[in-house]
Design a protein that fits this description.
Multidrug-efflux Transporter 1 Regulator Bmrr, Chain A, 25% strand, Arc Repressor Mutant, subunit A, 293 residues, elongated, 35% helix, eleven-stranded antiparallel beta sheet, alpha+beta, 2 domains
Length: 293
């Protein structure tokens, strides 16, 4: 099985090479031996867009040369790029570019296209690939979990603590918002490098906190979000991957040219939807609150 970076790079190449051959998610997923649904989820997680929409945009962009540089009729061009009917091509073209192919030929209007996606080596990490940051607004949410006091020398224990929580303490928590989504909070970092690590799940409120567990409110915040795809189970996230996340956040915080700075409260959280693991690739999101500089 290909490593995540190589898989995604090959998928992008397959799309470019297959534009005139009716390339689609079904064809690609069969080539690499996993389900179409998994490919769709993986592509959307990595690139923040659906694979179907991306293929459509790249196909339409490729057809522009035929529109502008040849005298081929619209029906011929439509069928060349996989459209069964001329009108469906025209409608899709107009939704993408705001103008019909015929009007584009007449006016020579400048239009914006979606360029091909590329992966860069700096995104490659260990047996995974890292994306981000992008910036998102995270609404207030509540969690219940088990608090552990750790130091940065204990990073390798975080996945084990998460596994123990998911297999044991989570069963005590009622009214979970989504029991399949794990939240790992890091907070109260002090100068000695100690911090609280809280494996948890989201809940509707903090009215019923089981004995031995704790509740915490994450206030509405603008966050920098990093996304990671790894060739391992999320239980097997090793010290190198956890350290990589902390290093990425540290580098982000020290970037003098960034538009955002880390918030003073220094609460980070990792989010994992356990349903997305298919036996090969895990998907992890890491959030850290930021403020505009």
């Amino acid at each position: 099985m290909l490593k995540p970076y190589d898989l995604l790079e090959n998928v992008l190449l397959d799309i470019e090479n297959g534009i005139k051959n009716n390339i689609n998610a079904s064809v690609i997923s069969r080539k690499y031996g996993f389900s179409e649904g998994h490919l769709r989820r993986l592509f959307s997680f990595a690139f923040n867009q659906s694979i179907a929409a991306y293929i459509r945009s790249r196909t339409l962009a490729a057809s522009l040369n035929d529109i502008l540089e040849t005298d081929s009729n619209i029906l011929y061009i439509a069928t060349e790029y996989g459209f069964e009917y001329e009108q469906s091509y025209i409608r899709t073209f107009k939704r993408e570019f705001g103008i019909t192919p015929g009007d584009l030929r007449k006016t020579g209007q400048i239009i914006q296209i979606k360029p091909p996606l590329h992966l860069f080596d700096k995104k490659r990490v260990d047996n995974g690939v890292l994306f981000g940051p992008d910036f998102v607004m995270v609404p207030r949410f509540y969690v219940i979990g088990k608090s552990h006091c750790l130091s940065f020398k204990d990073l390798c224990t975080e996945p084990l603590l998460a596994k123990q929580f998911l297999e044991n303490e989570r069963k005590q928590i009622k009214e979970t918002v989504n029991p399949n989504v794990f939240i790992g909070l890091t907070c109260n970092i002090n100068e000695e490098g100690r911090f609280d690590y809280i494996p948890s799940v989201k809940v509707a409120n903090l009215k019923n906190i089981p004995y031995g567990l704790c509740g915490l409110t994450f206030e509405t915040s603008m966050c920098a979000r990093f996304r990671y795809i790894g060739q391992h189970h999320y239980y097997d996230t090793n010290e190198n991957v956890v350290s990589m996340f902390y290093n990425v956040i540290s580098n982000f915080a020290q970037n003098e040219h960034a538009r955002y700075a880390l918030s003073n409260d220094k609460i980070y959280f990792v989010m994992i939807d356990t349903r997305l693991y298919d036996g090969t690739y895990c998907q992890i999101e890491w959030y850290t609150p930021v403020t505009k500089k």
